[in-house]
Specification:
The structure holds 2 protein chains of 2 kinds. By secondary structure, chain A is mainly β. Chain A has no helices and 11 strands. Helix content of chain A is 0%, strand content 56%. In chain A, a hairpin with a 2-residue loop joins β5 and β6 (53-57). Chain A starts with a strand and ends with a strand. By secondary structure, chain B is mainly β. Chain B is 0% helix and 48% strand. Chain B contains no helices and 10 strands. In chain B, the strands form 2 sheets. In chain B, strands 1, 3, 4, 8, 9 and 10 form a 6-stranded mixed beta sheet that branches. Chain B has a 4-stranded antiparallel beta sheet with strand order 2-7-6-5, with no helix packed on it. In chain B, β3 (32-38) and β4 (45-50) form a beta hairpin. The chains are: A mainly beta, B mainly beta. Chains A and B meet through β5, β9 and β10 of A and β4 of B.
């Protein structure tokens, strides 16, 4: 299984809502990532988990809260978002080789719209 | 961190080789060059990577100049399904995690 799955595919939420994005992989990868991608731009790294511990937070606002319940699952909890947070949210995973050669496998993304 | 520069768009005829250039003139000696592509409304897909030597896999070939300041991704027989945005990326080493993404090249394969 070389697939990263993400749910939901689309999400519309109001600025006062609380919602969660989910990501799952069964490739035995020990690093998992959240990216944000605006239209016609490359993905921007938000968070990295390595061995279920948060290792990188790219100065993301606290209204985005990541969680890694186990090595296969990654969540992104959303609360009090702004309309400018509307974007495609991508999850990725990779082996944690530590040698800089491991490619990242991406999920299809969740298209988020904040009203 | 090394940055990459790519042309914003390119066309290629179906069945011909597509050659996508990338400039990474400030790359360090231990930084890898990666290529990903993103078909419309999908997640990015890994294509190939290299350090110094040319590389080939079932999808593409990667040619890296001897001074490592530029590279070319070659899709040998482009099909309509190869229409996508192609990203040239430098991987920060020793960090395993961070990809420095370029702006990407929109490749359009024409029948």
């Amino acid at each position: 299984d070389t697939e990263v799955t993400q749910t939901p595919k689309h999400l519309v939420m109001g600025m006062t809502n609380k919602k969660s994005l989910k990501c799952e992989q069964h490739m035995g990868h020990r690093a998992m990532y959240w990216y944000k991608q605006k239209a016609k731009k490359p993905p921007e790294l938000m968070f990295v988990y390595s061995y279920e511990k948060l290792s990188i937070n790219e100065s993301v606002p606290s209204r985005f809260s990541p969680e890694c319940p186990n090595s296969s699952l990654l969540n992104l909890h959303l609360h009090a978002l702004q309309p400018e947070d509307s974007a495609l949210y991508l999850c990725a995973s990779s082996q944690d080789s530590g040698q800089g050669k491991s490619e990242q496998f991406f999920g299809p993304g969740t298209r988020l719209t904040v009203l | 961190d090394a940055k990459t520069t790519q042309p914003p768009s390119m066309d290629c005829a179906e069945g011909r080789a597509a050659n996508l250039p990338c400039n990474h003139s400030t790359i360090s000696g231990n930084e890898y060059v990666y290529w990903y592509r993103q078909i419309h409304s999908q997640g990015p897909q890994y294509i190939i990577h290299g350090l110094k030597n040319n590389e080939t896999n079932e999808m593409a070939s990667l040619i890296i100049t001897e001074d490592r300041k530029s590279s070319t991704l070659i899709l040998p027989h482009a099909t309509l399904r190869d229409t996508a945005v192609y990203y040239c990326i430098v991987r920060v080493v020793p960090s395993n995690y961070q990809l420095i993404w370029g702006a990407g090249t929109k490749l359009i394969i024409k029948p």
